[in-house]
Amino acid sequence: MKKILFIIGSLRKESFNRKLALMAEQQIAGRAIVEYLDYATVPLLNQDIEFPAPEAVTNVRNKVAEADGLWIFSPEYNYSYPGALKNLIDWLSRPLVAGDRQSPLAIHGKKTTLSGAGGAMATAKCREKLTELLTLPFIRADVMKEPQTGITLGAAAWTEGKMTLTAEQEEALSRQTEAFLAFLG
How far apart are CA 132 and CA 154, in angstroms? Predict the structure, then answer.
């Protein structure tokens, strides 16, 4: 059975993107193993501590390497991705051994899909910029560009912390789930 690692772009415990991930997990149930990446303790990238890598960095690299695919659920911060998520990807883009730029990284070739719940733009800019970042020549993730799911949150989400998907949004998530499972092979 394939293993999918869910990465939530927001570190907030009650994030809308975590709730969206839980919905996707229910759709996947029984067809793949889903695990959530905990990267809250990954330090800011700093070449002074890069080698040997901090334990938290080694742990996330191992989790990414063990997964058959990555599903990133991220909010949009100022037309881009959150800093914590960027920091994680920065660590995943660094060599594992000092000076070794030839060996593949944990994220190289990793089949990846993107979703997001946020404001009026439904995280379109975030997903666009994540695709650009993840497909850079030195990162080389294998990003499934379509379909992706972008959710525009209603007023109740922002005022009451509740997220309810419309039938159309649920269908979009379901299409992405099916396409990603097929993409994983």
Answer: 28
Task: Write the pLDDT tens digit of every residue in 87-142.
Answer: 999 999 999 888 888 888 999 999 999 999 999 999 999 999 999 999 999 999 99
The arithmetic mean of pLDDT across residues 147-152, rounded, is 97
Measuring CA to CA, how many Å separate 82 from each of 8, 28, 117, 168?
A: 10, 26, 13, 26
Taking each continuous run of H as one helix and of E as one strand, the counts in the chain are: 6, 6
Angle between helices 83-92 and 55-66 (to 10 degrees): 80
Domains within the chain, CATH numbers bracketed: 3-184 (3.40.50.360)
CA angle 127, 170, 74 (to 5 degrees): 25
pLDDT at 43 over 90: yes
Q: Which two tokens stand for residue 8?
A: 């939530």
Those residues whose C-beta lies under 8 Å from the C-beta of residue 120, and which sit 6 or more positions away, are 152
> pLDDT for 156-184, tens place per residue?
888 888 899 999 999 999 999 999 999 99
For residue 148, which amino acid is it?
A: Q
* Residue labelled with tokens 């799911």: 149
CB-facing half-sphere around the CA of 113: CA atoms within 13 A: 26
